[in-house]
Design brief:
It is built from two helices and six strands; from the N terminus they run E-H-E-H-E-E-E-E. The protein is α+β, with helices and mostly antiparallel strands and 98 residues long. Strand 4 and strand 5 form a beta hairpin. 13% of the residues are buried.
Amino acid sequence: MAKQILLKPIITEKANDLAEKLNRYTFVVNSKANKLEVKAAVEKMYNVTVVSVNTANMPGKRRRRSTRSGVFNGMISPYKKAVVTLAEGEEIDFYQNL
């Protein structure tokens, strides 16, 4: 069974600015994936040329929310993030299928 490499794109203001200004796109990837696997998965899925891949393991964080019924404690799961730089003139449109 082949593991799924790309889990989802990260769509935030910071990620959108990186995409517009520097042609860099951000994804949540499988925690076991390496840079070569991420590069191959992006090139295959979006038909683009990847110049470089940077990865980071994002730590989990504790969150606390106060409501009328009390205080709820929670946790944001840790994940692996990949920032992919594309070749000049290429882009990825995340909103094409909406």
